[in-house]
Amino acid sequence: MSDKKTLVLHLSGVPSPLLFAVGDDTATELNGSLLDLVRSGSTSAVRCADGSEVVVDFGKVVTAHIGALPTVGEVYGAPDRRMRGLA
Q1: How open is the CA angle 44-48-49, to the nearest 5 degrees?
Q2: Beta bridge mates, 64
Q3: What residues does each domain of the chain span?
Q4: SS3 of 4, please?
Q5: pLDDT digit string (tens) for 4-56?
Q6: Which of 42, 46, 54, 83 would suit a FRET pair with 34, their CA atoms being 20 to 30 Å apart?
Q7: Superkingdom, according to UniProt (predicted)?
Q8: How does 28-58 read in b/e, with b if 16+ C-beta sit within 10 Å?
Q9: What per-residue confidence (pLDDT) applies to 75?
Q10: What is the spatial distance between Cα 81 and Cα 13, in angstroms, rounded to a whole number?
Q11: Residue 4 pLDDT
Q12: What CA–CA distance (Å, rounded) separates 56 from 19?
């Protein structure tokens, strides 16, 4: 990833946002569709930077945006933090 990006999802009643590392292609795609996804409350698969996919129910999302990858904290789908074990 040349420019590390994160899908940031804020859920109602949850104090901390959910963070998903995404690649440049996914970030570009989402920038064009986040508004419609949140407005419609649809469910969509999102490809993470490590190649895994998550399914997001945008009906539960209050706000969503693409931001810079934080240097501290847990970010799902980051290439160097791939889950092991039961996943």
Answers
A1: 155
A2: 9
A3: 5-69
A4: coil
A5: 899 999 998 999 999 999 999 999 999 999 999 999 999 999 999 999 999 99
A6: 83
A7: Bacteria
A8: eebeeebeebbeeeeeeebbbbbebebebeb
A9: 77
A10: 27
A11: 83
A12: 12
| Both structure tokens of 44 | 């969509």
Residue with tokens 């949140």: 38
Q: What is the pLDDT of residues 42-61, one digit of tens each?
A: 999 999 999 999 999 999 99
Cα–Cα distances in Å, from 44 out to 60, 68, 69, 81, 85?
Answer: 12, 22, 21, 23, 25
Q: How far apart are CA 26 and CA 31, in angstroms?
A: 8
pTM, two decimal places: 0.80
